[in-house]
Description:
Oligomer: single chain
Bound molecules: adenosine monophosphate, magnesium ion
Amino acid sequence: xxxxxxxxxxxxxxxxYDPDSMPVEKAREVIARYLSPVTTMERVNVRAALGRVxxxxxxxxxxxxxxxxxxxxxxxxRHADLVTDGEVTLNIAGSSFAGAPFPGVVGAGEAIRxxxxxxxxxxxxxxxxxxxxxxxxDRVVIGxxxxxxxxxxxxxxxxAAGQVALARGRALRPADIGLVSSLGIGEVPVYRRLRVAxxxxxxxxxxIGSRPGPGQLFDSNRYTIYGMLKRLDCELIDMGVxxxxxxxxxxxxxxxxxxxDVVVTSGGVSVGEADFVRDLLRRMGxxxxxxxAMKPGRPLAYGRIGGAHFFGLPGNPVSVMVTFYQFVRExxxxxxxxxxxxxxxxxxVPCVSNLTKVPGRTEFQxxxxxxHADGAWRVRVTGEQGSGILRSMSEANCFIVLPADQGDxxxxxxxxxxxxxxxx
Length: 424
Ligand code: AMP
Ligand code: MG
């Protein structure tokens, strides 16, 4: 769209891969080479910045905390007044409460009543917590064993003025907008949102409100795609269902590419349909059709149409979601200016189900990770794993990631899981 497109090597020359059995990792790598993040920024109010990507470092304009302050309720004292044996009695000369500091200087033999967060008054260097002091009237008795500087938070110890408080590329979370506010900053620079156009392809699809005829079904992919994009904070352009008709498809691709940074479609990339879409896209941009060595989600098209990135996802409802989470999500994060983009974490847990798996492809089975009575977490498979069974995605709270070289999994064996919570 508005931003310059960095020239990249032609996709067709993306050398060392076999488009008929592209490993998952390799496909991710190749895609990453073609992505140039948005550069346009806008300033938004700190609340509106939640979930947005920071376009510049936020530099702290002040020390946090701004003053030396007390970490405890107690007494601010001069360490030199304390004794190494027995007890000492000090005069309580005033108080320092949050928002109401002691204006004077603590003199010899004096203590100041101080509450947590209260500014440590001049002259004092140590806080004695109230549990270690006995006050009566305007006097306080303090025993031995106190360390100079104890229970005291130094000015600037969290963050010094001039330090980077939050780095560019970060998607702002609740703690971050709190941190920004703690610096007195009311507006932050963020990248503009990505514009993503999407549509479903297929003559068999009908929309909600129509009656499916023989062999027809409701379009669900456009709703799952909507949901997944929405969660990534994209600006959405829903282009509906497009028929398997060259003229209609060409029109849709042109319109989508002109309006959006990214075009996402479902269907039309499987054997039998791909040739037709391939010919069309060959004229409009640079698109490769891969058979990814994965299950579900074998066919995937990726490339550019005009200035837009294009992801042609398979038609099967589970394949759409798996390919989105394994490829599109990460690409969108990169394009949106997120930095760094780390892979979705995986961890190993015992699997209670018997898993059938043919070596040669990475499988993303849908799993339910749950805590058992003995306190340990174990995963089970959701049931039938057909790529048309959308309910398996609905029930799952994780993917069970079985590497390409893996065969069947016996109950009790450790498997890699990738939590959906956090990415869905
Ligand atoms: P395709 O990749 O276009 O051959 O689609 C594969 C299968 O996925 C089709 O036979 C449909 O059953 C299903 N399918 C395709 N598009 C959708 C959609 N938008 N919503 C639900 N199911 C779909
Ligand atoms: Mg189709």
